[in-house]
Design goal:
5-stranded parallel β-sheet; two-stranded antiparallel ribbon; 7 strands; alpha/beta; single chain
């Protein structure tokens, strides 16, 4: 089962006792040029989903998002479900699903590969 979740459903779920993991799976070029991501989201490369899916807590659920909520996030949600991680994808993705509804953001410098920056000012992680 590969289902979507709306902005309002996700925002409510984030306030629940056991919120889902929110995972940013925008492709590298889109993520690098972006200046924000959903507050509290993890960043993972969609091409490596079979590798990092094994590192997620088995008792968790996940919501993944890409730029527009199409094939990237839908494919990652499907792969996570195949790895026994219940996952949904955000309708409209980051642009139409989250930022258009003024969802809370964590900011990152453009061209950074993560929102975290080392003390020297360079990107720390991919």
């Amino acid at each position: 089962m590969n289902s979507s979740i709306s902005f309002s459903e996700l925002r409510s779920a984030l306030g629940a006792k056991a919120p889902p993991l929110v995972i940013d799976v925008r492709r590298r070029p889109a993520f690098r040029t972006a200046t924000g991501m959903i507050a509290g989201a993890l960043r993972r490369d969609p091409e490596d989903v079979t590798k990092w899916a094994k590192t997620l807590p088995r008792a968790s659920t996940a919501v993944v998002y890409c730029v527009h909520g199409h094939e990237v996030s839908q494919g990652v949600a499907e792969a996570l479900n195949e790895h026994a991680i219940p996952a949904r994808y955000l309708e409209g993705g980051f642009e139409e699903g989250w930022t258009a509804n003024r969802g809370e953001l964590d900011h990152k410098p453009p061209e950074a590969t993560t929102r975290w920056i080392t003390r020297s000012g360079s990107s720390c992680c991919t």
